[in-house]
Amino acid sequence: MNVENLEVTNKYVTLKSHIDGSRPQESDFVLKTATLRLSIEPGSSSGSDSDSEDVVLKNLYVSIDPYQINRMKTVSSTQKLVSIAERITPGQF
């Protein structure tokens, strides 16, 4: 299958608003869709020959690492201690 310039519809879940409390609720998230253009970088395998090593994958399920919960909160002590634990902005993916 040649994926050069193939457009696909991507569904993703993003944070609707910061969570309050220890457990996120379904209402804290929103399902969105976006069109993605799949392409192969110049110089890589073309995808059209049988020896191609390029692969396109589709994720069926994704889970959130528990440490991400603190990043979804409005305020968390972890956000101040570790730079990679800064607060997530709702709507970003």
Over all CA atoms, what is the radius of gyration?
18 Å
Proportion in β-strands: 15-25%
Give the topology string: H per helix, E per strand. EEHH
Structural class: alpha+beta
> What is the straight-line distance between the termini?
28 Å
Q: Going across the biggest sheet, name each strand in turn.
A: 1-2
Mean pLDDT across residues = 77
**Main sheet attributes: strand count, strand direction, barrel closure:** 2 strands, antiparallel
Helix content: 10-25%
Provide a descriptive summary of the structure in words.
The protein is an alpha+beta fold and 93 residues long. It contains 2 helices and 2 strands. It has a two-stranded antiparallel sheet with strand order 1-2.
Short description:
This protein is of the alpha+beta class and about 90 residues long. It has helices at about 70, 75-80, and strands spanning about 5-15, 30-40.
List the helices and strands and how they pair.
Blueprint: E1 6-15, E2 29-38, H1 68-72, H2 77-81
Antiparallel strand pairs: 1-2
Label this structure with key terms.
single chain; 93 residues; alpha+beta; two-stranded antiparallel sheet; 2 helices; 2 strands; 22% strand
